[in-house]
Structures are given as structure tokens and as C-alpha cells.
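Appendix B, Record 12. Input sequence as logged:
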Amino acid sequence: MNTARTSSFATWRARFWEHPEIALEERFACRLLADELEAAGFALERNIGQMPTVFVASWGSGSPIIGVLAEYDALPGLSQQLSSTRKPIVTGGPGHGSADLCLIASTPLPEVVEHLRRCGIPLAEGPVQRTGAAGTLLSVYIRDPDQNLIKIANYVE
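Logged structural output:
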């Protein structure tokens, strides 16, 4: 795993945690992530749908093509210090839960798996069939640097 990237992800995570923002108000998190992706060479389109917290970042061409929905809004009442016991920063204030990501890939899942293998990213599980919001998914699971479980899937037609 790329140590510099892992360090960057950990920094972003800490900064998101320190600046909890509720849904549609996550301007700090959006700006941080968009600016970091732009600095890394991604082409950015901001203010998608006239929403200041929505952007599209594109990089490269060809395969694999992966779409990411980044939910970085905080939830009301989850204010929490970095602690394994309940210690609110602001009683009743917003805070972050854990990562819960499902990436729907337009690239066929076997190609995604091969790409992950070439990058040295082990599968935690899969391929397995699961039920998604819009139908049956063929899914694989990997772990991010913080050991959150990340699903990458194709809809089965």
C-alpha cells in the first residue's frame, strides 16, 4: 500500500471528524476533498445541479470506470471525541459514524478484481451475490486503510 496515500487519507479523515457538517451543509468537507483531488490531477466540475456540496472528479480514460458517492455529512446527535466510549464534543451536536461505501462499477467485476490484484489490494470477500437498492449485485469487498469494509459491485441483469 502507498504510505503517502495512506497518510493523506488519515489526515482527511481526521479533518472531516474535526469539522462535522450535516447533510447539504458539508462545505468544508466538500472543499477539502475536491481541492485534494484537483491537486492530485483530477479534472473537477463543481456545483453540480447548482448544489455547492456536489462535484464530479474525473481522471484518465478507459477502464476501470468506477463511480463513487461520498457521503461525508455528519448525523445529528453523534458528536464524539476520538474515544471508544461515549464522550460528546458538543452535547447533541452532529458527528460522524463509520464508513459505509458501495461503489457501483461500470467496468465488469472480473476486470475490477484483476485491477485490484495488480495493485496489491487483497479481497476481503467475494465475488458474492447480494441485494442492492435497485436489484441483485455481484460484489467484492476490500478494506480501506482504516479497515472499513468497502463494497465494489456490478448490477446483475
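The chain has a mean pLDDT of 83.
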